[in-house]
Specification:
The chain has 50 residues and is α+β, with helices and mostly antiparallel strands. It is built from 1 helix and 2 strands; from the N terminus they run E-E-H.
Length: 50
């Protein structure tokens, strides 16, 4: 069994690797921020040309 300090226990009692969970949350956050920056860039480009 892996080290307990790297594991999370879910509601149904299964073990999940904490590093994998944090990595997936980080990737999701980066994708959201990328989308927000694209939208802000488009808005700035459109309003700058007016």
């Amino acid at each position: 069994m892996p080290k307990k300090n790297n594991m999370l226990i879910t509601d149904d009692g299964t073990y999940v690797n904490k590093k994998d969970t944090h990595s997936m949350m980080f990737v999701a956050l980066c994708r959201v921020l990328t989308f927000a920056l694209i939208v802000l860039g488009l808005i700035a480009f459109i309003t700058g040309n007016m």
